[in-house]
């Protein structure tokens, strides 16, 4: 892929990606420097919007195209945190009691990690010059990764793993239904039992016998 860049108002190039990365490392191309490649059509873009330089840090983005590390954090991070927490609670035999028990705290942390990774992954797609999938795809991650693969042109492993995790979660819910129903029946049976009557006083028993 050939690249062109603005050099003090003059068009420079074509150069390879390796060469343009070298120019970025030498500070000859800055985040605001306009660059162009055939994929951009008729529009020149700043290096920060072309997937070459991060607009937040100005650091070189060495990987070609958009990175997948935030996508993997979005997909696997919350799931691993919840599973590890369940294993630790079961191993240490720590009960999850109250509205702010360990599982509730971990659930909030997992949700926070989920949305942070989701927003950062969408931002990385924008930095690479691509339009990320719609915001509401967070409700169905396999759909998000399917759209992401169409946009980026890669990421089949992300899509496959998201489908596998979805199948695992659905299977766990199905197997949990009988246990949940049994617990509800036990709770209902406990509440339905009549409360034991208080024993009568000795004097009252004698009066009833005399009558």
Explain the overall architecture.
The chain has 211 residues and is of the alpha+beta class. The chain contains 6 helices and 4 strands. It has helices at 17-25, 69-92, 102-127, 141-152, 156-192, 202-210, and strands spanning 3-7, 10-15, 34-37, 45-46. It has a 4-stranded antiparallel sheet with strand order 2-1-3-4. Residues 56-65 have low confidence and may be disordered.
Assign an overall shape.
elongated
Q: What fraction of residues sit in β-strands?
A: 5-15%
Number of strands: 4
Class per helix and strand makeup: alpha+beta
State the low-pLDDT regions, or none.
56-65
Put simply, the count of helices is 6
> Roughly how much helix do the residues carry, as a percent range?
55-70%
Whole-angstrom Rg: 30 Å
Largest sheet: 4 strands, antiparallel
User: What is the CA–CA distance across the termini?
Assistant: 109 Å
The ordered string of helix (H) and strand (E) elements is EEHEEHHHHH
Largest sheet strand order: 2-1-3-4
Q: What is the mean predicted local confidence, pLDDT?
A: 76
């Amino acid at each position: 892929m050939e690249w062109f860049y603005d050099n003090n108002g003059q068009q420079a190039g074509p150069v390879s990606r390796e060469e343009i990365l070298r120019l970025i490392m030498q500070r000859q191309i800055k985040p605001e420097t306009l660059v162009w490649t055939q994929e951009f059509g008729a529009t020149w873009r700043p290096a920060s919007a072309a997937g070459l330089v991060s607009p937040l840090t100005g650091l070189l983005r060495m990987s070609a195209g958009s990175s997948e590390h935030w996508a993997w954090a979005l997909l696997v991070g919350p799931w691993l945190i919840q599973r590890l927490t369940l294993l630790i609670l079961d191993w240490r035999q720590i009960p999850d009691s109250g509205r702010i028990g360990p599982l509730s705290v971990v659930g909030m942390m997992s949700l926070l990690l989920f949305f942070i990774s989701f927003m950062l992954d969408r931002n990385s797609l924008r930095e690479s010059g691509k339009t990320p999938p719609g915001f509401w795809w967070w409700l169905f991650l396999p759909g998000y990764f399917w759209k992401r693969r169409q946009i980026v042109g890669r990421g089949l492993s992300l899509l496959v793993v998201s489908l596998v995790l979805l199948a695992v979660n659905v299977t766990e819910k199905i197997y949990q239904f009988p246990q949940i129903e049994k617990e509800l029946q036990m709770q209902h049976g406990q509440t339905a039992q009549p409360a034991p009557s208080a024993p009568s006083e000795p004097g009252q028993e004698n009066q009833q016998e005399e009558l």
